[in-house]
Design brief:
CATH topology of the largest domain: MetI-like fold
Number of helices: 8
Strand content: under 5%
Number of domains: 2
CATH superfamily of the largest domain: MetI-like
Distance between the termini: 43 Å
Length: 204
């Protein structure tokens, strides 16, 4: 009985969510772009649509994966650059903030001109990921304790030794957090921009 009591709020929330989705779709309260839940489930359950859904899911996962890898690489590279060559920090910070503040829908037409269609989701996902990785890495590289820096100075450590043996290990918790937060962001960016998503008639 106690276990059922704990599960009841979650079950009730799912039922309310499903009922709300169905009502919004049936009465078109959100327009034609919001299909009823029953229509969506019927489309997903139709074997004739499984091949289309598989192709769309594969394209989405490939775009998200590539965007994540590129975004992580760019974020790490820029963070390392501003840490080693500190004079570039203000300019790169402003550039990163400008890119992050620009909506993806505003950048999509630019990517449509510069990139091929299947590269656009990768670029959108990479932009979303690199901002989080850059912020997490730059903040993490500042996390090393002052006493540890003094010890490295006393021992005559070179800048590259300090960077790889002190600053990067100290930054690992922040970097891991940034990588985790970047996963759903990559899915949102890549899936939203994926031109290979199915354009099926939901019956609206």
């Amino acid at each position: 009985m106690t276990r059922l009591t704990k599960l009841l709020p979650g079950i009730l929330g799912i039922v309310i969510f499903a009922a709300g989705w169905e009502l919004i779709g049936q009465y078109r309260l959100a327009g034609l772009t919001w299909p009823p839940l029953s229509t969506v489930l019927g489309f997903l359950g139709n074997p004739a649509n499984h091949a289309l859904l598989q192709r769309a899911a594969t394209a989405s996962f490939v775009a998200v994966g590539l965007g994540y890898v590129f975004g992580v690489g760019i974020g790490f590279a820029l963070a390392a650059l501003v840490r080693v060559w500190r004079v570039t920090r203000p300019g790169i910070d402003r550039f990163v903030a400008l890119i992050h503040a620009t909506p993806g829908i505003a950048l999509a037409p630019v990517f449509m001109v510069l990139l091929q269609r299947d590269q656009i989701p990768v670029a959108i996902a990479a932009l979303a990921v690199f901002y989080l990785v850059y912020v997490a890495t730059t903040s993490g590289l500042e996390a090393a304790h002052r006493a540890h820096h003094d010890l490295f100075s006393v021992l005559g450590a070179k800048p590259q030794t300090r960077f790889f043996r002190l600053e990067i290990p100290a930054a690992l918790p922040a970097i891991v957090s940034g990588l985790k937060l970047a996963v759903p962001v990559a899915f949102m960016g890549g899936s939203w921009a994926n031109g290979s998503a199915p354009r099926a008639d939901w019956g609206c």
